[in-house]
Design brief:
Ribosomal_uL13; three-stranded parallel sheet; 204 residues; 2 domains; Ribosomal_uL13_CS; 8 helices; mainly alpha; Ribosomal Protein L13p, Chain: A
Length: 204
């Protein structure tokens, strides 16, 4: 039985769209909750123009008499990725619907995920899977060229987040250094207690 409390936070940047979607689809079906952030950084194999033509062909697919009834063409990178995962799930069944509800997708890294550890999926990384000479497209640029309006805003918010993260990391390094120094200062005083704690497996 899957650990339902486990939330997998995946940083989408540098992953291949289809490979990442397949792995995420499997995980949500197994019962894990999955959050994919930075969807605008996902890659698609094949050059940009080829992928754009494919998406424009997809935009032409609509209900002839009433286009508002679908199919719906999402423009945001996060929703494009979500739709890719949906295509890999039996989403018209209760099991598939429940699996899809366990998936969250975001452009950029909004709170609270900006302060959480993010994972990568090695089996889906572009740098692992594609030859260095092969062309690829970035989902954020593709989305922008087919009607996504928030590329600039997302980029600005990402820059702000990175600045805050840099400050936090600098502060963390100083705290760690001071902690190590404090431990070294009292090492001789607490040596006898340390030995007892090691004996009982409290300290390793």
């Amino acid at each position: 039985m899957a650990d339902v409390l486990l939330v997998l936070i995946i940083d989408g940047r540098g992953h291949l769209l289809g490979r990442l979607a397949a792995i995420v689809a499997k995980q949500v079906l197994l019962g894990h909750k999955v959050v994919v952030v930075r969807c605008e950084g996902i890659n698609i194999s094949g050059n940009f123009y080829r992928n754009k033509l494919k998406y424009l062909a997809f935009l032409r697919k609509r209900m002839n008499t009433n286009p508002s009834r679908g199919p719906y063409h999402f423009r945001a990178p996060s929703r494009i990725f979500w739709r890719t995962v949906r295509g890999m799930l039996p989403h018209k069944t209760k099991r598939g619907q429940a699996a899809l509800e366990r998936l969250k997708v975001f452009d950029g890294i909004p709170p609270p995920y900006d302060k959480r550890k993010r994972m990568v999926v090695p089996a889906a990384l572009k740098i692992v899977r594609l030859k260095p000479t092969r062309r690829f497209a970035v989902l954020g640029r593709l989305a922008h060229e087919v009607g996504w309006k928030y590329q600039a805003i997302t980029a600005t918010l990402e820059e702000k987040r990175k600045e805050k993260a840099k400050l936090r990391y600098t502060k963390k390094k100083v705290t760690l250094k001071l902690t190590k120094q404090a431990e070294k200062n009292v090492e001789s005083k607490i040596a006898k207690y340390t030995e007892v704690l090691k004996l009982y497996g409290v300290l390793v």
